[in-house]
Write a structure and sequence with these properties.
This protein is α/β, with parallel strands linked by helices. It is 31% helix and 19% strand.
């Protein structure tokens, strides 16, 4: 744990499409995390029968909202990251000047999306819950990193350590578990990136059990920054 672990605060759609609320998230979590992440979705590409269709429609962010959130991240000194779900969002990410994009596990096998991300010169951070490493559409691309993930909300505990230690292709862990034990286990196993869903008490939808508070993220930051290299070469020969 001697090198800094990147901690990503995943806002998901907890802002409900309210940019002011998204900025509150940035203000609350930017002193703790390295990266703030949102989701760039367009309901035009979502099946109308999807059970979350109405929520996704109300929480969809306009292009100008993305630029405002990006600017707030820059002002706060944190990185901006977004998840995309369709090739149509690649152009927006490029216009935002992003060098990296997040791909959720449900889209990790999308060949056309992988091609579009690659053609745009974007680095991809890919969750592997639904589509395991070795089977994603991003396997042969040079600029990609994989995050271990269990696509359950909340996810069962006791998986992260084995997942990370048994798969050297994984750079980190995308968490959906209750509490911090899985995130801490992933860090001990060598994860260099930890992504967590975060919450505020006044967010646009009810807080869910796997979402982390400001206090929890501060605890995770302290754990990740604990420099265990102090145990190396501590004795004179």
């Amino acid at each position: 744990m001697s090198s800094r672990v990147e901690i990503i605060a995943e806002l998901s759609t907890n802002h409900g499409g309210d940019v002011g609320l998204a900025l509150q998230f940035i203000k609350a979590f930017s002193p703790i995390v390295d990266t703030i992440k949102i989701q760039s979705h367009r309901v035009a590409h979502l099946q109308p029968t999807d059970p979350q269709f109405e929520w996704m429609r109300s929480s969809q962010l306009k292009d100008e909202h993305h630029f405002k959130i990006l600017g707030a991240c820059q002002d706060a000194g944190v990185q901006f990251l977004t998840t995309i779900f369709n090739t149509a969002e690649v152009d927006l990410v490029a216009r935002l000047g992003c060098q990296r994009v997040k791909i959720g596990s449900g889209e990790a096998g999308n060949v056309e999306l992988a091609k579009a991300v690659h053609a745009a010169g974007l680095r991809a951070l890919v969750s592997t819950g639904i589509t395991p490493v070795g089977m994603t559409a991003f396997e042969g691309y040079r600029y990609r990193q994989f995050l271990g993930c269990v696509t359950r909300y909340p996810a069962p505990a006791g998986i992260a350590y084995a997942m990370l230690t048994n798969n050297p292709q994984l750079s980190g862990f995308s968490d959906h578990s209750i509490g911090l034990d899985e995130c801490k286990a992933a860090i001990v196993a060598g994860a260099k990136i930890i992504e967590c869903h975060v919450q505020l008490t006044n967010q646009a939808r009810p807080v869910r059990s796997f979402e982390k508070s400001v206090a929890a993220m501060r605890e995770l930051r302290d754990f990740a920054d604990d420099d265990t290299s102090r145990f190396i070469k501590r004795w004179q020969s």
